[in-house]
Design brief:
438 residues, Rossmann fold, Nucleotidyltransferase, domain 5, eight-stranded mixed beta sheet, six-stranded mixed beta sheet, 14 strands, 34% helix
């Protein structure tokens, strides 16, 4: 029996993990980067502090002494509320002392009999101040409150003499300001573009989904508070929906139920939706539909490419899906039936038509087009006609994070959203107004 396994017997007498928390603890043993939670109420904060204590005790039994680990939050008030006050009452005095020292700062200091390890308590108001420090493990409470650069800064400090497998632990709800990068790494597991450097570590990332239903300690009063939240918050806090929950979203109805794998049908027509751009991204969506569903199965989302280059990119993408009709690779087996987009994109319209792709537009008010799109996302009978492939990550990002109303706005149906993070959403709105208005 390993030292860590032997310690688990003693540790079980100290804390009260429920089965999902134990599942997350086992994930830590097998992976370097573990995220637990993704909803309100599964006991994330409790799990983080006790899991760090478990690691310290395990390393102590392996002969490592004076090991330092960090437990952090975005600011000190959160640290005090979520962790410091709880450690003061939960951790036994015979095990260690909560104190602030000049040498190592605020933390829980284990007694020498238990390895003299330090569970340091820190806030991340300026994470660069931890450059050059060394930690055997780092935990962040509410990871989505921190930008991606904070994660990179901190993981650069994951090193400790004699400990080959340092650990990163995170707990979070799926509605924080920086939801995107956490969702991409742990939930979607997309290690491309800005996350490409982490691709060699892909197998070290693990997400253990914890929901309030997993926690038997939640009271009826707490459940009443959860279940009476606005719908977009309830989806995030209770159902663990990572694709909704941001206040002020234009398409707050969009959720995980609107996302699904789809292989395009060679027997069905393909239609294109586009929003023009050059410095701003040009967004191009690939669409198929049946009598009951609209499938957005692929996207092109790029800046600084000429109109004719992007039309060629559409043709090449069609060939990737459906094959080439000739050996010279000049014509795919299938061309889009129609391309629908922004009316001001005169040059792009012309280049589509030169390649035998019909190009059309229909002028309409933005607020009226948004209403039509919403009906496809979720109609009055709770039916979700729109299905978006995970390949369309920019479209999904705009729907779930980027495309918002002004912070000081009314969020009413007659209010125009903010410009900027709307290129793929605009493309789909143009197409919907002309091709799927009902």
């Amino acid at each position: 029996m390993s030292a860590l396994a032997r310690d688990q017997v003693n540790f079980s007498e100290l804390c009260s993990f429920h089965p999902k928390q134990w599942e997350a603890a086992e994930a830590v043993a097998a992976h370097k980067y573990t995220l637990f939670g993704g909803a309100r109420g599964p006991g994330k904060s409790y799990w983080l502090r006790w899991m760090l204590l478990r690691l310290l005790l395990g390393w102590s039994m392996e002969g490592h002494t004076n090991v330092k680990v960090m437990l952090s939050t975005i600011d000190y008030p959160m640290l005090e509320d979520r962790q410091i006050s709880k450690i003061d009452t939960e951790f036994p005095d015979w095990l260690g002392t909560l104190k602030d020292t000049k040498e190592n700062g605020l933390g829980f200091y284990l007694h020498p009999a238990y390895g003299s390890g330090i569970l340091a308590l820190r806030n991340l108001d300026n994470p660069s101040k931890y450059k050059g420090s060394e930690w055997a493990a780092i935990a962040i409470d509410e990871v989505t409150e921190n930008p991606f650069r904070t994660f990179n800064n901190l993981r650069g400090s994951l090193r400790w003499p004699g400990i080959a497998r340092t650990k990163f632990l995170g707990g979070t709800n799926p509605d924080g300001r920086y939801n995107h990068w956490v969702r991409q790494l742990w939930v979607v597991r997309d290690f491309t573009e800005e996350f490409e450097r982490l691709a060699p570590l892909k197998d070290e990332f693990v997400f253990v989904r914890g929901l309030p239903y997993d926690n038997p300690a939640l009271t009826e009063d707490y459940w009443n508070d959860l279940l009476t939240q606005p719908e977009h918050i309830k989806r995030a806090w209770v159902d663990g929906d990572w694709f909704g929950g941001v206040e002020g979203l234009v398409y707050g109805e969009f959720g995980a139920e609107n996302i699904g794998e789809y292989q395009p049908d060679p027997e069905l027509p393909v239609e294109i939706a586009f929003d023009d751009g050059y410095v701003d991204p040009r967004a191009i969506l690939f669409i198929q539909r049946t009598g009951s569903k609209i499938y957005v199965f692929d996207e092109i989302y790029e800046s600084r490419r000429l109109a004719e280059e992007h039309v060629q990119a559409v043709i090449d993408r069609m060939a990737e899906w459906f094959g080439w009709a000739d050996d010279d690779h000049t014509r795919p087996n299938k061309l889009p039936e129609i391309a629908v987009g922004s009316p001001e994109a005169v040059e792009l319209h012309k280049h589509f038509q030169k390649r035998d792709i019909v190009a059309r537009f229909a002028v309409h008010k933005v607020v009226e087009g948004i209403k039509v799109v919403r009906r496809h996302i979720l109609d009055g009978k709770k039916y979700r006609a729109l299905q978006v492939s995970p390949l369309c990550k920019h479209f999904i990002e705009e729907l779930t994070i980027g495309y918002q109303y002004p912070p000081e706005g009314t969020k009413r149906d007659d209010e125009k959203p903010l410009d900027g993070n709307d290129h793929a959403c605009d493309a789909f709105r143009y197409w919907t107004w002309l091709r799927a208005r009902r």
